[in-house]
Amino acid sequence: MSTPPALADTIRTHETPEGVRLRLRLAGPVVRACAWAIDLVIRLLLYALVVGIFAFFGGVGTALMLISFFLLEWFYPVVFEISGGATPGKRAMGLVVIHDNGTPVALPSSLIRNLLRGADFLPLLYAAGLLSMLVSRDFQRLGDLAAGTLVVYREREPERAELPWAVSVRPPAALSVGEQRELIEFAERSARLSPGRQVELAELLRGITGKQGDAAVCELHSYAQCLTPGALMRQEAFEQRHQSLWDTFSRQLDELERPRLRRRPEQGAGLPERYRRVCNHYALARERRYSPALVEQLHRLVLRGHQQLYTRRGAWMWRLLAFIANGFPRALRRQAGYFWFALFLLPALLIGVGCMLDEHLVYSVMGEAEVEQMESMYRPDNEHPGRTLERGAESDFSR
Length: 399
Description:
single chain, two-stranded antiparallel sheet, 4 strands, about 60% helix
């Protein structure tokens, strides 16, 4: 499944100690809800399998069944997140859980974010978690805030775009290197743009091309065909000079991304030096405006290297205590109105509407004696609404 195009307000940037800005594409509530629904279906199937296995073992089977339910409910996401960064539902939607500094999620953080799902569920149907995501700049629910985690789109290997066919035509005016690269990028991305959008962008340069509509698009494609050989020669020379280093760095990352038990200490040798060199190449590729495919390829290598070098270790208990003592009260004060609405006013409104639709629903929240007292206080023949008929005005506290 392809990753949807990123919008400006869904991009989180993290600057590494090397001065490189990593782009993390945040996942919003809708796609995360879809991933949760997929995981729910998988868990329900597992629950049914557990029931089918242990239903014939009497009391011992019931005990094992309850233990299995507990483990599935609370540790199903933890196992998948620490092994690959995502549950099957998140993986199907192209998502991954990471720390807010771009490093892979570790066991302590995964435990914290998933054990706090009970708080996110309050008062019902994950209302607190959804509200927290909507008011958070990074779409973090309460568990994410406590664990310092983010849910982002998984980086995919970029594909090189092919220029649409056109007759090579030299541009009528001298263009800077940046302007030449922009023309080539327009041609490379044309296949992903609608015809109307292509025309809209091409007509911005009507003063240069002197054409409108589809003719303007074809003219820019012709300019790109003429400019591509020189630009490709510069980029190809850059790639040929450093490709061996990128391949070595990628293979080393593949080894380090294996499960911890299968790693060897010598696999990390030379990683910091290679990482710094790849960071420099990434900065050069962006400055020289090389093709988006090359820039994305280097960005992905830098992100993977950053995740291996700066993975959080230890001190998770202190982070949890700091969040309970400081982070959560501060977030609650900052968003107090939203939380009080979700915890008190919204449930009261839902219960009121439910009681209006079904008068018997009130007995699920109030006792029979309390209901009779309320009816007595607001009967039409009561001369003093809000006061029971058995209690006179002389018993009021104000008198």
